[in-house]
Amino acid sequence: MDIASRPAEPAENTQVADAAPPPHSPPVIRREDYQPPAWLVPETGLDFTLGIDAAGITSKLKVVRNPEGSGEAVLRLNGDQIAPLAVRVDGAAVNDWRLDGSDLLIDLPGAEHIVEVETQVNPAANSQLMGLYASNGMLCTQCEAEGFRRITFFPDRPDVLSVYSVRMTGDKAQFPILLANGNCTAQGENADGTHWAEWHDPWPKPSYLFALVAGDLVANHATFTTMSGREVDLNIWVRPGDEDRTQHAMDSLIASMKWDEEAFGREYDLDLFNIVAVSDFNMGAMENKGLNVFNTRYVLADPETATDGDYDAVEGVIGHEYFHNWSGNRITCRDWFQLSLKEGFTVLRDQLFSAAMGSEAVKRIEDVRVLRSAQFPEDSGPLAHPIRPDSYQEISNFYTATVYNKGAEVIRMMRTMAGPMQFRKGTDLYFDRHDGEAATCEDFIRSMEEGAGLDLTQFRLWYSQAGTPQVAVTLKHEGTTATLHLSQTVPATPGQPDKQPVPVPLRIGLFNRDNKEHTGEQLIVLTKASDTFVFEEFDHPPVLSINRGFSAPVSIEFDRPVEDLVFLAAHDDDPFARYEAMQSLVVQHLVAAVSGALDEAARAEGRAAIGEAFAAIVTDSALEDLMRGELMILPAESYLAEQMLIADPGAIHAEREALKAWLGREYAQILGALHDRAVAVLYSRDAAARGARKIKSQALGYIAVGNNAEGARRAIAQYRAADNMTDRQGAMLVLASLDVPERAEALADFHSRYEGNALVIDKWFSLQAGSFHPGVLANIRALAEHPDFTMTNPNRVRALYMAAAVNPKAFHDESGEGYRLIGDLIRRLDPINPQTAARFVPSLGRWRRIEPVRAAMMREELQKIAAEPSLSRDVREQVTKSLG
Ligand code: 0A1
Ligand code: ZN
């Protein structure tokens, strides 16, 4: 049947806004337009005939009218680039179906029917990596958010929960392993060389959690006994040859399962848990019920090929996906506006897990660094949105640092205000009350109010308002009274010109300068636009430590003497606050330097204060090296730019590098000694050895900027002696930025040593694209032509181009070449993989906060993209908003 000739119906989808969109602009979906589904699908049967370039799918849906729905007789099944090859209702072929855009509409007379639809897809041609696609000869699926509709017609929305039974048949030699959600209930072989398997998942789930994998895979197998004594089979499936790099992932999975029982009382609910690693994947991983699909980079790790940071990322992502089994799968989202319900909560859970597995203090600092470098700029730019957005055009664009990381911070604030025990009562109530449901953020908030005993009336503003609150602080001392004055503003963001004050929970301490102790930490909650807090019995002006542990995701404006920051950097007992003092010291100095406000004397004075604190950190024998390594990191250029209304990236880069060089020269001796000490520590995975590796590369970085020759000497020695990827990459990072002969030697060695190992070759691309080498831009253009580069693998694209987009020296080069590089990429990548292409737009979208000459060039690139006639919905939405 010729689908194109069928008359198209007007849009009836209840999730689509009625307002006519401007030409080219995809329709706007609004949260307020939510309607319950007209039809439910209690049971879904799927029969797959598998092939790399042709896969046939027959769906069999039991559909029942939703008593809470609109009562419409028409069944709307979403589709995307698929055609209905045959449609049957209650066993009989029907022809009077029609298409509305990509959706299939079928009129159904009764209250309950069996609907069958046949479709066919080409997995090998699926370069978007959404739906059913081929990766390295295997077949796998990605359905969140709206990929299921690229496989078969279905009410592809998260509030339609169904019990799935899946049958698949494929060539046994090509696809020896056949996996889907739940448990394998039957399998067998056919005479023609094919085999088949049937899988049944007893837990009702939305279509976005469906998964299927078929390929030549081997497993690392283990078992886990749950708290009620059930034995669960665990498998991590990888390509043959990769199995030796899966043990850390397996250890992390077992630790996650145990931790979720202890920390949240959550037990796993199937007899089998499968993880599959695939090399072509748009995101980090996916929490499909009982069958998580992972980007290889969050599964494979061994000391030779993975850094300590990679090990931590594997642990964190394995935990994250596992925790989704409750926060996401058992309780899912009613609609995609509620995404932070599962993502914000699950990020908080994975953060708490990683903190419990390692150093709580270091983890907190790392999490705040991510928030500030990725989320704060988002919140102050054209793409700012609340953690629960009000509208979207393409939901893939809303898997953001705001929904994930700020979402986690918002729930963390509830935990801070309630205390961990009460918070646990709130989460228990939430899990109990909403198990099996598609819930909303409001449901979560209510459970917290009732279970944890919080009044969150005003707090709800954190869900509805975008923008990072700014809290201005002053502290006065008179007689024996210290008076703390706080005032807050929440900046205007697109579509939200006026904001109300939000509750800001601040953990504070007031230090006595003499005995270096504080009077006991307190939690104060600023609820008004401004307020005053009075503290008695201070004979001398105390030193204020505020927002300890980063208790609120706000930016603090506190103009205070340098000596107070030096004091806190040396003495604060809250590790985050100590880090924060060091960061503020540097930020204050660099912001002044960039704005030209420092004469030579002031510059020398500022440097001396930073140097004093820096030297104290480098030499403090009471500090653990992991923490020392954190404290030594200078604020990122993107974070420095955030501190300025209009930033000059060139000046920021120059001043930050100059400070780094000064520290490297001024403290050459103690940095050299630190490097020597760290070099002597043998490889192990314990905290002391990891700490040694962290400071080794930190020290090397300073030494090299201060003295290129000495840096190159130490770096090449470290590179040659390296018996692990942390040291090798640390040395390579330094060499990649230096214009020295050792650079070429190390890069060539690195490539030939790891040829064929995709994840390490990704590092080889990133190291170069992220370097501060004078020829970095020409090098990136050349790397794009390298035989190992491909536009069809998202990891490789990100390795080269995301490294370039976040490299301030390359991206903001005054020629504009960095902007053109990213603009060209977006236009070339969009037809291949729009989701990944759209992720590059925000870097250009920051033009309003950049000095005018560069801003004009950034804008020009956005305009060139906008002029493309056939942009994807993903890129179109981001570019339009960025220009807006
Ligand atoms: N739910 C996943 C994230 C995810 C979202 C979309 C994807 O499509 C390509 C893939 C993964 C998580 O939070 O881990
Ligand atoms: Zn998630």
UniProtKB/TrEMBL annotation:
Record field: catalytic activity: Release of an N-terminal amino acid, Xaa-|-Yaa- from a peptide, amide or arylamide. Xaa is preferably Ala, but may be most amino acids including Pro (slow action). When a terminal hydrophobic residue is followed by a prolyl residue, the two may be released as an intact Xaa-Pro dipeptide
Cleaved signal peptide residues: none
Pfam families according to UniProt: DUF3458, DUF3458_C, Peptidase_M1, Peptidase_M1_N
Peptidase M1 membrane alanine aminopeptidase domain span: 249-459
TM region(s), chain numbering: none
Domain Peptidase M1 alanyl aminopeptidase Ig-like fold residues, every copy: 467-558
Broad enzyme group: hydrolase
Swiss-Prot/TrEMBL cofactor(s): Zn(2+)
Keywords: Aminopeptidase, Hydrolase, Metal-binding, Metalloprotease, Protease, Zinc
Residue intervals of the Aminopeptidase N-like N-terminal domain: 120-209
Entry-linked InterPro entries: Aminopeptidase_N-like_N (IPR045357), Aminopeptidase_N-like_N_sf (IPR042097), PepN_Ig-like_sf (IPR038438), Peptidase_M1 (IPR001930), Peptidase_M1_dom (IPR014782), Peptidase_M1_pepN (IPR012779), Peptidase_M1_pepN_C (IPR024601), Peptidase_M1_pepN_C_sf (IPR037144)
Keyword Heme: no
The EC number(s) this enzyme carries: 3.4.11.2
Family as reported in the entry's similarity comment: Belongs to the peptidase M1 family.
Protein name (record): Aminopeptidase N
